[in-house]
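stage 2 :: seqdesign
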């Protein structure tokens, strides 16, 4: 309870810049006495200390915490802004506070946008296309009422103001997906006076995207599958007039949420190994696998680490707002001064550690495409799985989780995962068990992501691997490349389709 009061006070009172100070200056702290008599970190001992019972007990706690949102959401969730998320932060923080001063703790509040769509409907001609879905962070239609207009085909991919014909004004812009972000298309459509916009796919599938940061020019925007768009396009190109009704009742709110950072008091503060998971869930469910599993893995490793002394600093992060578009990790890296950026030797992302129909997935983070060191980290995971006689697969390192800001700002990164809404293949069934044809996590972003939604074998294996990654770099960076300059990739040098779990373009 005490820490809850503290957390609320911090949220209410302090500005971000006041609170960043402890994140960056460890020099004032004395390590003396903290680890007196403790053995030097040893990967085998740290791995051996990881017990599945502890993880499962914490998962039960987290589910109860998610239930505290039921008044507001009528189901358990730990989405940012909810009671369940506030209590998740309190739970993590007070567990860390109980570790006898082994860590310097800090909370980093930051502004976040939270979008809620209450109702939506798109009618095209006489049809209600099944695939039409409102983009995340879309504004409502005017006065939260239905708007009427003809569908007006936008030229090219609608990335330039000149692509929008004058008669888009007062009508519904019909824009092809691609080249620039959904947010840009919505903004350009809004600027010329469209009453709504529909972004249709170049592939047959649906478009489940986000407009990202809201701007005053954004208009109510839907995504539409290529399959549904095909016949409509044909008619429009033949000169037919197609009318439509668009309706979105939605709200975009500015709120404040908080990252939690814990850094070992001991260890060289100029050479840190950093790791993170995200403390928040989506609004649809309690998020026990996504990313309760990663958050609790971190908490358990942080707890067991206190039995050891370390040579290098270890910094744990629990990000908030990951599900809204990696908000917490973006903010953290954005406000990091260059000399502090240079002290982070690498960042390891742990998001979804125990999917029920899991594969052992390693981000294919190569040095060719990422800051040098990323590939050494990737290979640490491969070597470990191989040594255990376990199979693994590579997955794209494409911006879907909190490593994104790090690698864009010159910090080597990587991580492991066990799979989200992807479909397990026959080969993977042979490699990992489970069921081909099903999603890796059949409850991904749903209400059923509860305590039954983790495979304890996978969760335990991966938590031991997380412990190994921490122990390896807490002991030594001797075999790890030196940091190079803070920024390598420009934000738009390597456009990725994702920034978080939703498509952005
Ligand atoms: C630390 O080591 C002691 C003695 O081996 C053990 O009892 C304890 O569970 C370990 N972990 C923590 C977090 O203290
Ligand atoms: C990993 O990424 C590199 C490019 O950085 C690519 O050449 C390679 O084919 C990828 N490997 C797998 C297994 O996806
Ligand atoms: C690894 O995958 C192969 C099939 O590719 C399978 O025969 C083997 O049993 C798997 N190993 C483990 C430990 O599951
Ligand atoms: C976890 O996965 C393994 C391998 O697919 C399976 O044998 C086991 O029954 C699963 N356990 C749970 C709790 O789902």
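stage 2 :: out
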């Amino acid at each position: 309870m005490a820490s809850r009061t503290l957390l609320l006070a911090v949220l209410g009172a302090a500005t971000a810049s006041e609170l960043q100070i402890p994140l960056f200056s460890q020099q004032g702290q004395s390590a003396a006495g903290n680890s007196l008599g403790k053995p030097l970190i040893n990967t085998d001992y740290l791995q051996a200390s990881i017990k599945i019972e502890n993880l499962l007990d914490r998962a039960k706690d987290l589910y109860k915490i998610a239930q505290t949102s039921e008044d507001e959401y009528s189901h358990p969730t730990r989405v940012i802004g909810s009671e369940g998320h506030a209590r998740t932060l309190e739970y993590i923080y007070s567990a860390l506070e109980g570790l006898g001063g082994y860590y310097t703790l800090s909370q980093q509040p930051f502004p976040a946008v939270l979008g809620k769509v209450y109702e939506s409907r798109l009618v095209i001609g006489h049809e209600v296309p099944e695939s039409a879905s409102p983009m995340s962070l879309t504004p409502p239609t005017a006065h939260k009422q239905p708007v009427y207009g003809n569908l007006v085909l936008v030229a090219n991919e609608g990335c330039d103001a000149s692509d929008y014909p004058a008669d888009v004004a007062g009508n519904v812009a019909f824009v092809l997906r691609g080249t620039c972000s959904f947010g840009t298309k919505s903004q350009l459509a809004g600027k010329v006076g469209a009453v709504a916009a529909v972004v249709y796919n170049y592939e047959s599938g649906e478009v489940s995207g986000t407009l990202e940061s809201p701007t005053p020019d954004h208009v109510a925007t839907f995504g539409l599958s290529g399959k549904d768009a095909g016949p409509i396009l044909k008619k429009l190109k033949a000169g037919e007039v197609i009318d439509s009704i668009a309706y979105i009742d939605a709200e975009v709110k500015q709120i404040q949420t908080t990252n939690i950072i814990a850094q070992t008091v001991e260890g060289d503060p100029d050479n840190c190994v950093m790791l993170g998971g995200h403390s928040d869930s989506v609004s649809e469910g309690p998020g026990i696998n996504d990313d309760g599993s990663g958050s609790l893995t971190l908490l358990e490793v942080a707890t067991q680490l206190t039995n050891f002394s370390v040579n290098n600093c270890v910094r744990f992060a629990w990000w908030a707002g990951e599900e809204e578009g990696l908000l917490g990790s973006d903010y953290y890296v954005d406000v990091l001064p260059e000399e502090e950026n240079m002290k982070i030797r690498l960042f390891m992302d742990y998001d979804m550690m125990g999917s029920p129909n899991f594969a052992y997935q390693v981000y294919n983070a190569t040095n060719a495409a990422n800051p040098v060191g990323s590939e050494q980290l990737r290979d640490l995971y491969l070597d470990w799985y191989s040594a255990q006689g376990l199979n693994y697969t590579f997955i794209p390192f494409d911006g879907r989780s909190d490593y994104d800001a790090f690698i864009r700002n010159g910090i080597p990164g990587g991580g492991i995962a066990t799979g989200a809404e992807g479909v397990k293949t026959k080969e993977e069934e042979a490699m990992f068990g489970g069921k081909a044809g099903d999603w890796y996590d059949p409850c991904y972003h749903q209400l059923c992501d509860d305590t039954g939604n983790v495979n304890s074998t996978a969760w335990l294996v991966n938590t031991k691997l997380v412990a190994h990654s921490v122990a390896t770099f807490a002991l030594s960076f001797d075999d790890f490349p030196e940091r190079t300059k803070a920024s390598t990739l420009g934000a738009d040098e390597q456009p990725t389709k994702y920034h978080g779990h939703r498509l952005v373009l």
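stage 3 :: structure notes
- The two ends are 43 Å apart (CA to CA).
- The chain has a mean pLDDT of 91.
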